[in-house]
Amino acid sequence: MPVIECDVDNARERLTAAGVAIEPGNTDHERWRAERDGATAVAYEGKVVIQGSDPTRLAALLRETGGRAHCYFDGASRGNPGPAAIGWVIVTSEGIVDEGSERIDDTTNNRAEYEALLRVLGVAREYDFGTADVRGDSQLVVEQVRGAWNTNEPALRERRVRVRELLDGFDDWSIEHVPREANDRADGLANEAFEDE
């Protein structure tokens, strides 16, 4: 049960900005309550206590700015071009902070990889992490973002520019190509998105 010492009014604003509904407290000692993803945050004077089976996501939203996020991404296309999906996972030392997947418009595998990267970086920015360590199994995307490989296709070049703009919003960042086995959670989420339709 995480206890986060903080200004509870600022904490309330952070949760509201993230789209989390705030309710009045249940007792005279509780300032407010908020629920998300099976966890409940209860504000007292000078602290917020988080209860529930998965407090990590709420704790990440309440944490002051900064911190390190490990961001995994994967995109998939069946047909290349064809039906496409993306998956992403954000992990901290406390566990999985956020993850998701969705079907996207028909596209190529490389474009889907870029869309997954854009999504995970956007979510990491919403949590206000200071450092993003990005990992993906698309060597092409990783090397293009690093600037080691040219980006000749205009659609990929545009996505690369958007990725670099998001990365510039972090205090520090890195991007690495990893084997598919090291990216299995994001890969699995992208594939699950195909099955959800």
UniProtKB/TrEMBL annotation:
What is the top-level taxon of the source organism? Answer: Archaea
Q: Which PROSITE patterns match?
A: RNASE_H_1 (PS50879)
Stretches assigned to the RNase H type-1 domain: 65-195
What GO molecular function terms would the record report? nucleic acid binding; RNA-DNA hybrid ribonuclease activity
Q: Report the Pfam families cross-referenced here.
A: RVT_3
**Which InterPro entries does this entry report, sorted A to Z?**
RNaseH-like_sf (IPR012337), RNaseH_domain (IPR002156), RNaseH_sf (IPR036397), RnhA-like_halobact (IPR049863)
Tell me the protein's name. Ribonuclease H
